[in-house]
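tool_call: predict_structure(chain=1)
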Amino acid sequence: MAKRLMMSFVTSDGRSRSFQLQDPVDDIQTADVQNVMNAMKGVIVPSDWAVDRAAVVDTNTNELFNLVE
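tool_result:
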């Protein structure tokens, strides 16, 4: 199982940008993610973009076949 932290930002006209971080810590806290996302504004995303959403996504891969290794 793989985990990713998804962080999304949005503009007033509906544009969005998302970032993914692989393998977030198990005890990740909402306030910590919000603080990081706020710190990203004006540095990684434009300062007028709003923090929209954050989620930890768990994925399972069930490989059906792999013909070329």
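agent: The chain has one domain: 2-59. Proceeding to next step.
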